[in-house]
Amino acid sequence: MPNKLKNQQNSKRIFLATPFENGLAKRGTRFIDIAEMLQDEGWEVNYLTTNYSHAYKYFFEENEILKEQQLRKYKLYFIPIIGYRKNISIKRILSNLKMSMDFYKKIKKLVKDGDYVLIPSRPVDFIYFISILKNSRRIKLILDIRDIWPDAFVKRNIIFDFYCNFFLKRSIFKYDLFFHISPSFTNWLKRYNENAKSIFVPPGFNPSRFQNELPNPKSNSDLNLVFIGALQFQLDILPVIKAIGNIEKYSLTIIGENGKGQRFAECHNYIIENNISNVWIKGVIEPDEVSKELEKFDIGIIPMISNSITNKFFDYLASYLPILVLGTNDSSEMVIQNEIGWNAKFDSEDILKVLNGISKEDINLKIQNIEKIKNDFNRDSLYKKILDNISKI
Q1: Torsional sign, CA 35, 112, 385, 339
Q2: Which residues contact 298 (CB under 8 A, 6 or more apart)?
Q3: What is the pTM of this model?
Q4: Is the four-CA dihedral 324, 326, 332, 336 of positive or negative sign?
């Protein structure tokens, strides 16, 4: 017991502040996994998040929050925020501003000289307000670049660009360490801090959730496609629906949409209006069920209109699913470079042309190529890189 107390007293303290990443959100778990690894390494971990689901637009119940806090080994804080229905709206901007200030106030009360603070790269006002902590504390700030504003938005204007640049130009230079999940994100970083260097740590997959074995060779020519994720604006699956609609040899299952996604209405209406019988929209499933569910399919779809490598990319990889990426981006480059899938335009004719050219032999070859690189993206080894580099600063 004395040794354990001594280790706790001598341990480093870190604050992971991530607005929409927690066990109740049923979304990405990057910071959750990192927090657990830091805890196991002897760090004193403080985790701050919010009481709102950004993806599904609802508030968590008090009893849910209490259970989640009891489940975790580290201190877990849920900060209340203003809810919003649209991702691109004045109300969301106001919510972000208030949330960022509230996180700043909470962390300032808790943080001490010598502590570490790790945050994701959105929203931009969040980056700014957390950076102000350095004005009164000798701490280390770490930025995990997972999204890049304003670049990530297809629909943007001068006002939004000004809003993003105002906060970023006044904050990025204060951060001590950077990680990024997509290779091209370093261009964004250089714009705001030309001398900054960042370490590439993609999302990877959780080996405890994905223990899939190498599947048997495919023996038929039917192709069962899957897209996993909410139908948000950044994810345009409609061209795939149009491409394969009522073509007997193809099917598409959409997993993870609760009917509130920005693109749900257009996809659902198109399916109904055209009497499409080979496309299904399923609801949200538990993260631990994803691995088993993906075993039923042949190809995973990435319809990301912005330049990012998402968690779903590695969910597919861990499940030995060859990947069809729409558009030209970091995901498509990774797929083509490693020969683990295909690339098509956001165009139904081009998508169908690509699908028609896929044989069962092609599927089997892509699966063999996935087997060659899969272990490179084991989350345990990737996140160990994060821990090692944090410890050095």
Answers
A1: positive
A2: 218, 222, 223, 224, 225, 321, 322, 363
A3: 0.88
A4: positive
